[in-house]
């Protein structure tokens, strides 16, 4: 008697599972796994008894060995055969619903997939008739994210489905590539080991669209899992294998399985239909199912994409089902960058009681569409590209969103009802990676958003309105902060600190401020601001005037800047962050307008703000923390506790993107980004020509070598935030570390010989230009020194004799200088330029 391919799929699975068991325990394992099927147990045991021969029997899948023993001729017999108008070309695989082959449609001249149905269908006329009726229904699912069914063929006793041939990898393969090293591949895992969050959400949105379309037709998939989802080379998701689908009980007759009795692994009579790890509780119990079982499976798939492991695991099928019925997923395994609404969506999809579960997959689709925006940062080489037809290398980063919540560690009398919402940029814009800042009374949020073409601008959204308003005259604005009365907003644009009325009006210039590292405003009309890196904090009148330094960098602690000031309620003292090249020395301090003395509060790679009735808010490892703070003693006490997970924290600049209203009731923060990106070639028409190398947290400091063989990139250390130079081999994508000092190395520029790179480094307490051989040989050589000035390389003369560099002045203005290579005195070219 022949053995069907689905039967051998079960044999193969149990064979490999038994091999992983101790020899003494295999009999007991098989007795449980085979559930009384003695013939199945004997088949697996006969394979286990085969010796490990020189031909490598144990290295081959059991289904291959078994097929050679009992059904070696099936594949050979079908390959090259015609089934109707379809020429069978080659086998593609086998599953619980039959063998799948690549075939050629000789009438229409296209390749298709042919699925040969198992004998369970062909030997039962009633079941086959019901299947053909349902196949006609499934053929009506004309949707871009569902693999199409072209028809049913019956030729010489062979019954087959004709399906769309979908090229690409399955989602299971994509996840496996992200969670474990593979030969020739670089893992792309995020912090939790799954896919990058933005990629997972984009795939989930497309899956939800497909299932929503099926549910609209009354069709339930019932076996949604990563192996049944394909991703084309163009990134389009296709849901496959509706072969286990059935019509919703409310949409027609009982369908293919009026009394659902599912299979695990291969189709085996008497078991439960579906795949154990993705079955809903009602499905696992053998109860009738409806579209809510697909919603459960969708939650399992999304969880697996984000974490890299299944939501419900176990050593045996019984263990898995027990976990589904009585356990809970480990939601702490989700990456910090997972949006809060996505976490809640997962929890609703994975409710065990279907009555409490998300009612409609369309709701999940709408939720995920809110996060579908992407923004890109293009890093162009200083000189022309040396690859034919290539214009640039691009690094893709995620969209950003702001979360707004009522925040109180303990509710206060008279507090309004707590509310929470999340929003992204207005239509046609993308939020800039800066914090949204609540007004002092918490009624409004100011934020920066960039149009698809053009500079960013400031927008205000009222808490009681979903429609933000753009503030005229704020093009290029970053880092907004409110006046204490909520009437004005300070911001940086065009190398200046400026102010504008929140309701609109003329923009006034206050002072020079090239790089915005924070500003804060008190009731006496004093603004404290950080004008650029390598400087202390300054004060200036909000009406304009001459800025005055109010803090001093501590060289013994290797401080490189004071930044992110925030006034305390008395308007005299202020919080700020002292950033140091040494991670342990980066800390939050209290400063005083009347004195340059400061008091250290705590170590943190973050800014800090005060929130009534007595808390300091700051971030650690992308979690917003709160700690008791005494305004009289100016000291923290007790232990910090978490307030919100998944807050965007930029370690390299010692900043977390959050803000709180003056009354402490409204907290806004930017949700954490998956900062990993891929370097990708694009042609001059904007078409992608392929990615280069692994995903990393690339900055925009990217330069291609003059000979076109390498690129130099800057990658921050994930722990300290210090930046280092890396080389990318543009042929293989391989990465090689070039610098490793405990300092920031950035702003690289190639020398014309392609054998050396110059770059800025603050390893000596101030930024200086260094030179490094790309072979790694020799020491890093300082080549530019201007006492008391920070210097940064820009470009080389074509003959390689002169280097252009910029030198900072106080308050951030810069001069352009030149220096001859090989010795000689640098000299200025252009004074008071702005970078």
Brief rundown of the structure:
Helices cover 18% and strands 35% of the residues.
Search tags:
single chain; 835 residues; alpha+beta; disordered N terminus
Query: Biggest sheet: strands, sense, closure?
Result: 6 strands, antiparallel
What is the total tally of β strands?
54
Estimated helix fraction: 10-25%
Distance between the termini: 80 Å
How large a portion of the residues is in β-strands, by DSSP E?
25-35%
Mean pLDDT across the residues is 78
Low-confidence stretches: 1-5, 51-76, 180-192, 244-274, 371-399, 411-418
Shape: globular
Q: What is the radius of gyration? A: 32 Å
> What's the number of helices?
14
The structural class is alpha+beta
Widest sheet: strand order? 1-2-3-4-6-5
Characterization of this structure:
- By secondary structure, this protein is an alpha+beta fold.
- The protein is 18% helix and 35% strand.
- It has a six-stranded antiparallel sheet with strand order 1-2-3-4-6-5. Strands 16, 17, 18, 19 and 20 form a five-stranded antiparallel sheet that branches.
- Helix 1 (5-19) crosses helix 3 (38-48), helix 9 (197-216) runs antiparallel to helix 14 and helix 11 (291-307) crosses helix 13 (340-349).
- It is globular, with a radius of gyration of 32 Å.
